[in-house]
Amino acid sequence: MVKKPKKQQQSGGTPATVALTAAGVEFTVHAYDHDPAHPSYGEEAAEATGVSPDRVFKTLVAEVDGTLTVAVVPVAGSLDLKALAAAVGGKRAAMADPALAERTTGYVRGGISPLGQRKRLPTVLDDSAQAHATICVSAGRRGLEVELSPTDLAKLTNAVLAPVGRT
Predict the structure, then answer these.
(1) Secondary structure element (H or E) that encloses residue 81, with its range
(2) How would you classify the pairing of strands 123-126 and 28-31?
(3) What is the dihedral angle through the alpha carbons of 167, 152, 59, 12, rounded to the nearest 10 degrees?
(4) Exposed, middle or buried by CB within 10 Å (0-12, 13-18, 19+), for 52?
């Protein structure tokens, strides 16, 4: 059995990177060695890749009026649940059960990508993303980030742009 070089496996191995390639979107993969002891997946990604925390976005899954909804916000801040509910026309939002989020998206916590999910969920991208030419989001695995334009991310996920992150 012939093994592919590690870099090739990482650049084409997740549903997120496959979706990006299929869409013809320009992107860059950033791989790093994930430390299971690190207290924050997002902060670890920013530190390990050398990308500013305001350009590294975390993917969170919440329930808005009973509907699973994805929020993509900077790792330097947190999610405003009331703003998320308002952005999708809902009344109440709460963080989703992690096991339900994993089953629904097909990704593990800390590696949930807004791209290539098993079931396409309503998505809200924090509008601060527009201030950057590119942002990083999970590529679908802990230790793997994908850098792309926020415009492409919003287009591919049918995301609503709204101020849902807070610092």
Answers:
(1) helix 81-87
(2) unpaired
(3) -140
(4) middle
